[in-house]
Specification:
The structure holds two protein chains of two kinds. Chain A is α+β, with helices and mostly antiparallel strands. Chain A folds into two domains: 126 residues, Roll (Ubiquitin-like (UB roll)); 83 residues, Alpha-Beta Plaits, CATH 3.30.70. Helix content of chain A is 21%, strand content 16%. In chain A, the strands form three sheets. A five-stranded mixed β-sheet of chain A has the order 2-1-5-3-4, sandwiched between helices. In chain A, a hairpin with a 2-residue loop joins β1 and β2. The N and C termini of chain A lie far apart (48 Å). Chain B is α/β, with parallel strands linked by helices. Chain B folds into five domains: 118 residues, Glutaredoxin; 202 residues, NADH-ubiquinone oxidoreductase 51kDa subunit (Rossmann fold, 3-Layer(aba) Sandwich); 87 residues, Ubiquitin-like (UB roll), CATH 3.10.20; 89 residues, NADH-ubiquinone oxidoreductase 51kDa subunit, iron-sulphur binding domain (de novo design (two linked rop proteins), Up-down Bundle); 74 residues, Alpha-Beta Plaits, CATH 3.30.70. The longest helix of chain B is centred in the N-terminal third of the chain and has 20 residues. The termini of chain B are far apart. In chain B, 55% of the residues are buried. Classes of the chains: A alpha+beta, B alpha/beta. Chains A and B meet through α2 of A and α18, α19 and α20 of B.
Chain lengths: 217, 636
């Protein structure tokens, strides 16, 4: 059996490693699919941001491409009315509780949400849903970086990076439903937690929720 | 290993059990229903009353705790079985009635039929439950023993051929059990109706030798109590079903995932496990064979999402109870990464019947695609609430109007909510839908695990949708975008509508968002949470429109859209009840002696409406909240 399979994405035939998830196969071939939570190294896809929907021929409903393993001969469409509708709603839902003061955000112009908006022609100011204010205090206790949870999209990139870097994870998810947050054990400020200031979490944050106080030169 | 086979081992247990049951038959017995439904109606006190009365009269009679017979509307209830009489069931018991029954029936020979609900055996004197419409439509399989056997006594289960299916199965190959369950087309009773046999078979393909069997008793739908009642009333039936499953797939370890809010169920199941172990029906060398299987209870902490398979397993592994994307499915990659079978309480409860009586017999009940029976907790505005079991294919109309004996107080039927927060509300026009997995799904509801709430003209469907959304939004784990934020926004919109705010665009947005949450969420909590909204939008659009277009709640439920008003012509000047009932002193006596409500002070608590004596019935609710012009009233 060959190590590769051939699949067709948006009419283009591409090669993908057998066993690979569709999302990574597409990205590797420069075909863009919106995504926030996907982590290639993780055994089981997080599948929580719900933005990477695609249509797979033979499957009735759109599927998140991070959960679907490539199969030889698979025919995939990254855009369709149903996909676009789900991505738009998912994206607007995320924006509805996101602190949208982009100009004051260190991730401005380098933000995954802005990328998605640009690539998919979506607006950063959504009007369908009432804004949900989160009003979390900014944790600027560490010397070099800070954590503004009002910008957090709960993708889990920081949690995964932290677990990989540190034997005992410093941050993790807590709370349920609308109160779900990334936080330290006992909700302590980072400086008072067991944080070693390795900053891997800051480096992977796609939206400027974890950010350097001074931009690194 | 012993020399005799499982049938012989079982034969000994059966003989012992029958002997024991027979020895008690010469005495009068009082069976008090003490499942949670009974206990909450005061059954434990009734039991004490019986014991005290019997003792004080020096009578020779046993008082036994049994589970739920299903007639929850008449709790607390008891069955009196006295030699020479048919066993008779009495409901609505209180200390006076207990005194009377002991004196007249146990001490004397008058069964006081005027207080009886029904007899349990055919006789020439008094009708049985089968003679009532409910009995005509009901067909009890997995509820057969519930309320009739001592749930604490393994022998009373064995004496009714309990664990006979296990003895039969152990004399044959494991494969035969699997084939029988597959042939019976037993569909999972947890809600989705996935065929149990196919699930079981999938766990064989993993090749892993270590496997688990888990019973999902994390029942959390508002208004649903089927699983609780079965575990409290007949725990061994579920345990036997689990052992059979374990034998079929080769598992040695199983868990019952029971929510901690069900302490009675946990207690009953734990003692059942202990008794079964003592008799060699659980543990090592079951019934003398080389098959080993043991069970343990895992108490869930009451997160609704943990009823979702992957979240349930996560919580058992010590992680947060959050769902994961599937596949891999549990059957190949479940608890601790091992092949795991997770089925609902009721699904396991059918298995002993299928093994005992065969797949063909099972398929003879119900419909072709959904064989067997359906168990519902029938609640809401029906006369006979309780636990019912009907063959699949029974219509909703039969279930509500025959089995449930129609609506209370002659009110008009409005909707029935099936399947809890994941289900939908069906209107009058859908009442002839047969109850089976596929027909209900087509109508927009789901079978769910069996909660069935009946609503009448006084229920506002927008408020009902909001109630369920409040529930799912609160129970959302928050992992995925659509469920975390989508349910929040749906709830916000529904709250607006209940205040009369919004325009036609609001309704469109609600529908679009509901569809997207259904299609976009990670797990079935999110995927099904919009069902109450989608079905009410589909069937009760008029009510939504009345709220936003006229500021009117037709059922007069939504507080912001109603006001309380005392109709002057009906108010009696002599009565002061409403004034006393008002917690905010909003009701005052006018100069002409009539009562009036100061709308500024009124908090719409409903007290005055309840307090006003029925002969006056002067307090009414008005929607939209506009006071009638007094002059017009007088002119009329």
């Amino acid at each position: 059996m060959s190590e590769y399979v051939k699949i067709v994405i948006d009419g283009t035939e591409v090669k993908a490693r057998r066993g690979e998830k569709l999302l990574w196969a597409a990205l590797e071939n420069d075909i863009y699919i919106p995504h926030l939570c996907a982590i290639r190294e993780e055994a089981r896809p997080n599948a929580s941001c719900r933005l990477c929907f695609v249509e797979v021929e033979g499957t009735q409903d759109p599927v998140p491409s991070c959960t679907r393993t490539v199969e030889d001969g698979m025919v995939v469409k990254t855009r369709s009315p149903r996909v676009d509708r789900l991505v738009k709603t998912g994206f607007e839902l995320l924006l509805s509780d996101h602190d949208l003061k982009c100009r004051q955000c260190p991730a401005n112009r380098n933000c995954a949400l802005q990328t998605i908006a640009k690539k998919r022609g979506l607006k950063l100011k959504q009007k369908r849903f009432k804004p949900v204010a989160r009003n979390y205090e900014i944790d600027d206790s560490p010397e070099e970086f800070a954590f503004n949870r009002n910008r957090c999209v709960l993708c889990g990139q920081c949690v995964f990076a932290d677990r990989r870097e540190n034997e005992t994870g410093v941050i993790g998810f807590a709370g349920r439903g609308i109160n779900r947050v990334v936080t330290t054990f006992q909700d302590l400020p980072l400086a008072e937690s067991i944080c070693r200031k390795c900053k891997v979490c800051v480096d992977v944050c796609p939206v400027g929720a974890l950010y350097y106080k001074k931009s690194p030169e | 290993m012993s020399t005799s086979g499982p049938r012989e081992e079982y034969g000994k247990l059966l003989e012992e059990a029958r002997e024991k049951v027979k020895s008690g038959e010469g005495r009068a017995r009082v069976l008090v229903g003490t499942a949670t439904c009974g206990v909450s109606a005061g059954a434990l006190k009734i039991k004490e009353d019986f014991i005290n009365e019997i003792q004080s009269k020096g009578l020779d009679a046993d008082v036994v705790e049994v589970g739920c017979m299903g007639h929850c509307y008449a709790e607390p209830l008891a069955v009196i079985a006295k030699p020479g009489f048919p066993p008779v069931c009495y409901g609505y018991l209180d200390d006076g009635l207990v005194h009377r029954l002991v004196e007249d029936f146990l001490a004397g020979d008058d069964p006081s039929y005027e207080y009886a609900l029904a007899a349990l055996e055919r006789n020439d004197v008094f009708p049985t439950f089968e003679d009532f419409p409910r009995g005509v439509y009901e067909e009890k399989l997995i509820l057969e023993n519930c309320g009739y056997i001592d749930a604490y006594d393994l022998d009373s289960y064995i004496a009714r051929d309990g664990y006979g299916a296990l003895a039969k199965a152990l004399s044959g190959e494991p494969r035969a059990v699997l084939e029988e369950v597959k042939a019976a087309n037993l569909r999972g009773r947890g809600g989705a109706g996935f065929p149990a046999g196919i699930k079981w078979e999938a766990s064989l393909n993993g090749g892993d030798s270590e496997k688990y069997v888990i019973c999902n008793a994390d029942e959390g739908d508002p208004g649903a109590f089927m699983d609780r009642s079965i575990l409290e009333s007949d725990p061994h039936l579920v345990i036997e079903g689990m052992i059979l499953c374990a034998y079929a797939i080769g598992a040695e370890k199983g868990y019952l995932y029971i929510r901690a809010e069900y302490p009675r169920a946990v207690g009953h199941v734990q003692q059942a496990i202990d008794r079964a172990r003592e008799k060699g029906l659980l543990g090592t060398s079951i019934l003398g064979t080389d098959f080993n299987f043991d069970l343990e209870i895992f108490q869930g902490s009451g997160a609704f999402v943990c009823g979702e398979a992957t979240a349930l397993v996560s919580s058992m592994e010590g992680k947060m109870g959050m769902p994961e994307s599937r596949p891999p499915r549990l059957a190949s990659h479940g608890l601790r990464g091992k092949p795991t079978i997770l089925n609902n309480v009721k699904t396991f409860a059918y298995v002993p019947f299928i093994i005992n009586r065969g797949a063909d017999w099972f398929k003879g009940i119900g419909t072709e695609e959904s064989p067997g029976t359906a168990v519902f907790s029938l609640v809401g505005k029906v006369n006979s609430t309780g636990l019912v079991e009907v063959p699949m294919g029974t219509t909703l109309r039969q279930l509500i109007f025959e089995v449930g004996d129609g609506l209370r107080d002659g009110k008009e039927f409005k909707a029935v909510q099936i399947g809890g927060p994941s289900g939908g509300c069906l209107p009058e026009s859908a009442l002839d839908v047969p109850i089976d997995f596929d027909s209900l799904h087509e109508a927009g509801a789901i079978m769910g695990s069996g909660g069935l709430v009946v609503m009448d003209e006084n229920d506002c469907m927008v408020a009902v949708a909001r109630y369920f959304l409040e529930f799912t939004q609160h129970e959302s784990c928050g992992k995925c975008t659509f469920c975390r934020l989508g349910t929040k926004h749906m709830l916000d919109i529904l709250n607006d509508i209940c205040r009369g705010e919004g325009d036609p665009e609001t309704l469109n947005l609600l529908k679009e968002l509901a569809e997207d949450v259904r299609d976009g969420s990670l797990c079935n909590l999110g995927r099904t949470a919009p069902n109450p909204v989608l079905t009410t939008l589909k069937y009760f659009m008029d009510e939504y429109k009345a709220h936003i277009e006229e500021g009117c709640c037709p059922a007069r439920v939504c507080r912001d859209l109603i006001l309380f008003y005392i109709e002057p012509p009906r108010c009696s000047k002599l009565c002061n009840v409403c004034v006393g009932s008002c917690p905010t002193e909003a009701i005052f006596t006018r100069d002409d002696g009539l009562k009036e409500i100061d709308q500024e002070k009124c908090v719409k608590c409903n007290n005055c409406l309840k307090a006003c004596p029925p002969e006056y019935n002067a307090v009414i609710k008005l929607s939209p909240p506009v006071l009638p012009p007094e002059k017009e009233k007088k002119a009329k």
